Structure formats: structure tokens, C-alpha cells
Amino acid sequence: MLADEPGGPAAYKDWVDQGMHGTMGYMARDPSVRDSIVRWFPPAKSAVLLTFSYSGKPLPPKAGEGRIARYATSDDYHGVLRAKAEALLAWLGALRPGTQGKAFVDSSPVLERLYARFAGLGWIGKNSMLLSPKIGSFFFLTGLAVDAELEPDEPIPDHCGDCNRCIQACPTDAFPAPRVLDASRCVAYFTIEHRGSIPVAFREGIGDWVFGCDVCQEVCPFNRFAAANPLFVRRLPESLPLEGVLERAEREFKEVFKPTPVERARRRGMLRNALLAMGNSGDPRHIPALERYATDPDSVLSEQARWSLERLRRN
Ligand code: B12
Ligand code: SF4
Ligand code: SF4
Fold first, then answer.
1. Do the Cβ atoms of 250 and 63 come closer than 8 Å?
2. Domain range holding 306?
3. Which residue's CA is minimally distant from atom 1 of ligand 2?
4. Is the pTM of the predicted complex or chain greater than 0.90?
5. Chain-wide mean pLDDT for the chain?
């Protein structure tokens, strides 16, 4: 039943076969575990999905600063959400002694948005986000696979209608079709997951993003209703001066970025991203920092710095 569901395992396989996962090798590994949650947790009879908002209304970007996707501005969410899902499992165990379950938070091969759609938590927007009419899409998903037969909720209808704002706003044209994201073109993929040099064709589109990207959510009318959540302790502002990003990555990566999801890009990734955004900034004050990196022994950083210098000097 699941196999040919829109956005289900067959859609996932097409996505991988077309190379849309880019260099995220783990997304192509053992595709059969994505066929059904039962492969991941054999006793599973039901999935329970939870949403946790992490951000309120979008703010306008600050000129000349490097932007950080808002999900990454707080302490890493994985542990917080796992604890919530496990608390729910303990509660279910108290109601139904002997209940077995397993929590998933982002990093498992469970297609979380697919199960959340089945659970009636939202519809898949044309930007491929799970979108709720009540809280928009700035939320995390987590959940449980359990061995209990629970009464299913009804999926809710798609409310995108004729709107295409997200597809039109994407700076790197990453949507080959509505609800299909070619991750190998996505700013979030380049700045978070991709190691090494960023292909030249995408550098200008990355603009001022130094970690992740929220453009296709910021333009979504349903995010007018997004709500902040005190559960997540704020660590970083949504944007930082670019020289500050570079300095923090150089000297304080562990202290400043390690407690947050930004850690995923690693120090080298953040240096590369800051150098790239400097090139896009149009601000000649970044020239000395770029000159310093233009001869760096790390060829990814030196090449990026030279590209950015050339772009600034061309302006
Ligand atoms: C790999 C990954 C990425 C990759 C690839 C994203 C992608 N679209 O696949 C990259 C690095 C680019 C990425 C970026 C982001 N991610 Co991410 N990511 C994941 C991860 C780990 C796996 C996703 C996956 O399996 N992709 C494979 C593709 C095929 O699956 P999918 O996109 O989920 O595809 C669904 C749709 O395409 C849909 N679909 C396709 N065709 C059709 C047709 C119809 C009719 C319908 C109804 C549906 C439909 O169904 C598919 C399966 O459910 C999940 C966590 C998880 N385990 O699920 C988080 C997750 C999807 N990411 C999340 C977040 C927050 C983000 C970012 C917002 C972060 C940021 N600000 O930079 C961006 C958003 C980009 C975007 N527009 O989607 C959240 C999304 C929450 C939500 N509200 O939807 C998740 C669920 C993590 C979490 N636990 O909270 N991510
Ligand atoms: S996150 Fe940014 S680059 Fe990725 S699909 Fe959305 S708008 Fe495009
Ligand atoms: S911007 Fe429009 S098309 Fe895109 S997800 Fe939101 S409502 Fe749907």
C-alpha cells in the first residue's frame, strides 16, 4: 500500500536514482529500510508523529550579514526531541504495560514527512515541507514506532492551491517539479551537508546564507502563523556579520557553533561558507580577509577565497 503512495518509497527510489541526493551517500544506503517503518522496527504496528515549532514569524534579513537558518539558532534539537518522544513512549507503556517502541528523530531512515502526512499533521507543500494550516512549516518532526494498534488520524487536504511562491523564490531553482526537491541544487544541502568545493554555478544563488536556507518557507503564506517555542534555548542570532562568522569558525567553533546544529557543517564548511558569502556581499571591506585565505594550504578554502575576491573586484 505504501510503495506507490505519492512521495512514498517509489518516489524516494526515483529521487536517489536521479542523483538528487548529491553527495549525501547515506541517503542512498540500503534503500529497502525506507520501504516501510516495519523494516526499521519489525514489531511496529503504528507510528506516532509529533511536531515541535521552533520559530515565529520570519524577520527581514540584515544587510551585509550572513544568515543562519532559524532551526539552527538554538541548541541541537535531537536530544530534546528524543527525550520528548521517549517520555511519550513511557506514558504509553503506563497505559498499556509491555508496549514496545522506538523513537526516531531526523537521523533514522524513516521517511518522517510521509508518516506525518498520514498522521494528519499537515500536507506536503510544493516546497516539500510538511505544512500545517495552524503552525506553518517552521517545526521539527519526531516520532515513535510502536507495537500497539492505534486508531489512525485522517490525512488533511492540500491547501497550496495555485500558489507557487516557494518554487519561484528558490534562489537555485531546486524544484524540478512541485513537491520534488533536487537536494543536489539546494542551498541547505551545499552549506550543511556538502563537503569540499561548492560548484561555481550555485555560488551566486547561495547569496548571504552561511548555514541552511529558509527562503522557500519565508515566502509561504502559512508561515504567518508560525510560533516560537521556549523549549529551544536560543544560542545564535538569525544573522551575524560575515567577519564575525569567519572569526568564530576560526577561533571559537567549539564554543559557539558546536552546541547547535551548525556543528554539522564542521569548521571547514563554515569557513568556506563565510568566504563564499563575502564574495556575494559586494562589500570591499572583506578583501583583506579574502586575501589572507587566497593562499591557504587548504585548496577548498583558497579557491573559494580567490573566487570571492574576483567577484568583489569585478563589482
Ligand atoms: C536529507 C534531508 C534533507 C536534505 C534533502 C531534503 C529533501 N527534500 O529530501 C537537505 C539537506 C537539502 C535538507 C534540507 C532541509 N531540511 Co531536511 N531532512 C532530511 C532528512 C534527514 C531526510 C529527508 C528524506 O528522506 N529525503 C528524501 C526525499 C525523497 O524525501 P522527502 O523530501 O521527505 O520527500 C517527501 C516529499 O518529496 C513528498 N512528495 C514527493 N512527491 C509528492 C507528491 C505528493 C502528491 C505528495 C503529497 C507528497 C510528495 O513525499 C516525500 C516522502 O515523504 C529528514 C528527516 C527524515 N528522516 O525524514 C530532514 C527533514 C525533512 N528536514 C527538515 C528541515 C527542517 C530542513 C530544512 C528546513 C533545514 C534548513 N532550514 O536549511 C531544509 C528544507 C529544504 C526543503 N525545502 O525541504 C525537517 C522538515 C520538517 C518539515 N516541516 O517538513 C525534517 C523532517 C527533519 C526533522 N526531523 O524535523 N534536508
Ligand atoms: S531551502 Fe532554499 S535552496 Fe533549498 S529548496 Fe528551499 S529555497 Fe531552494
Ligand atoms: S509557498 Fe505556496 S505553494 Fe509553496 S508551500 Fe507555501 S502555500 Fe504551498
1. no
2. 9-314
3. 213
4. yes
5. 94
